[in-house]
Each structure stands twice: as C-alpha cells, then as structure tokens.
Amino acid sequence: MAKATLSNPTSKHQIVERLGKIQLSSPRQWGRMTVSQMICHLSDSFRVTMGLKPWKTARISVTPIPLPAWFVKWVALETSVPWPRGLQTRPEVDAEQSGTPPAQFDQDKAELFALLEHFTRQPRDFNWQPHPMFGAMSDADWMRWGYLHMDHHLRQFGG
Fold first, then answer.
1. Which one of 24, 45, 58, 60 is most buried, by most CB atoms within 10 A?
2. Distance between CA 44 and CA 41 in Å, rounded?
3. How far is residue 67's CA from residue 142's CA, in Å, rounded to a whole number?
4. How do the domains of the chain map onto residue ranges?
C-alpha cells in the first residue's frame, strides 16, 4: 500500500474531509492546544514552510532529539510509527507565543483550507523553507510531512 501524501488526490481528499468535520466543540484527545489553536498552528506551519511567514530566529534551531536528524526524518516520514505526542511547538507556530492567535473559528478554518490548496498547488509559486529538524526536503518529503502533520493534529481532536 502506498504511503499517504498530500500529492495523492485520495489522501488529500481524506484530509480535507476530516478537516471539514472538525468543529469548535471537537474534544481534545491529548496536549494543551485548543482546537482553534490547532487550526492556527497548522496554518502557520504551512506559512513558514512556504516562506509566507518568517522564522523567528535567523538561525533555525534543531528540535533536541538525541538521535541523528536523518534517522528521525526517516522514522517520521517513511515508517508507520505514530508521531509522538507532547513535543514542544516552535514559537513561530504556537498561538500562545509568536504564532497566529485564533480569531473566528470558521474563518481560521477557511484560511487553513486555502493554505492547504496553496501548499499542494502545481506548479509551485514559492520555495520550500528548511524544516527546523530535517533541513532541506524534497517536494515528496514535504507532501508526506504535510499529510502526517495534519493527520497527527486531526487525530488530536478526534478527526
């Protein structure tokens, strides 16, 4: 079975459907962020990867995991190991720090849908920014990351 990725229309459609079902009342399964903060977190994550929002620091810090980055990237993108819960969120994509604070839920969700379309559009009209843990990534890596990141947070809110 092929890995789910946002470049696969079936996988992308599944994510879009799941996102459509998320409501302000969707219960959190783990973590601290609210459902509104999660929507803004996903939007900001797309913004920084596409260069629409700058990283807060000039030098991208590496998330401290005591394993080689190439191995963490391989596990994260190429295996079926679920992403860990409770990793620290980077300030640029954390609504409680320098990320976008929630405004109006339906508008924030509509913005996320628009950013997802921009992220997956061909041809691209932006250059990928380095991932803070994995560095430079290919189109295929970004499409896999985008799917897994959204899947992780949609599961966080029962979606």
1. 45
2. 5
3. 21
4. 9-156
